[in-house]
């Protein structure tokens, strides 16, 4: 089992330095962008992390978006509710579509 310099032998060059816009040490020297404020881009970087957690609530355990059983988007005159066999769908409901579709 090795210890010492073999683990930290490549750790002698700095990848980040101080950002001119926000002052944090997140400015990447090779990429020429700041990880905190996005400097070198005109617009300031921001991310809504609370909205990201809301997106996770709408995912099932496999990471797929949950499909709502009835989509009322295209309901209008001439809408037909198609009957579905629940045993073949695993208990999910049917779709409401227009009669011509």
TrEMBL record:
- Keyword Membrane in the entry? The reply is no
Q: Which GO terms describe its biological process?
A: translation
Q: Name one GO molecular function term.
A: structural constituent of ribosome
Database matches in SUPFAM superfamilies: Zn-binding ribosomal proteins (SSF57829)
Can you cite an annotated GO cellular component? cytosolic large ribosomal subunit
Coiled coil regions in record:
none
Tell me where on the tree of life, at the top rank, the source sits. Eukaryota
Q: Which UniProt keywords apply?
A: Metal-binding, Ribonucleoprotein, Ribosomal protein, RNA-binding, rRNA-binding, Zinc, Zinc-finger
Q: Which family does it belong to?
A: Belongs to the eukaryotic ribosomal protein eL37 family.
Name of the featured protein: 60S ribosomal protein L37
| Naturally occurring in which organism (per UniProt) | Pan paniscus
């Amino acid at each position: 089992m090795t210890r010492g310099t073999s683990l930290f032998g490549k750790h002698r060059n700095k990848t980040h330095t101080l950002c001119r816009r926000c002052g944090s040490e997140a400015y990447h020297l090779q990429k020429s962008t700041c990880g905190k404020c996005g400097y070198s881009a005109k617009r300031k970087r921001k991310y809504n992390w609370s909205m990201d957690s809301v997106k996770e609530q709408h995912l099932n355990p496999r990471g797929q978006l949950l499909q709502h059983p009835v989509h009322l988007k295209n309901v209008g005159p001439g809408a037909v509710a198609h009957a579905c066999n629940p045993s073949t769908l695993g208990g999910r409901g049917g779709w409401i579509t227009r009669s011509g579709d």
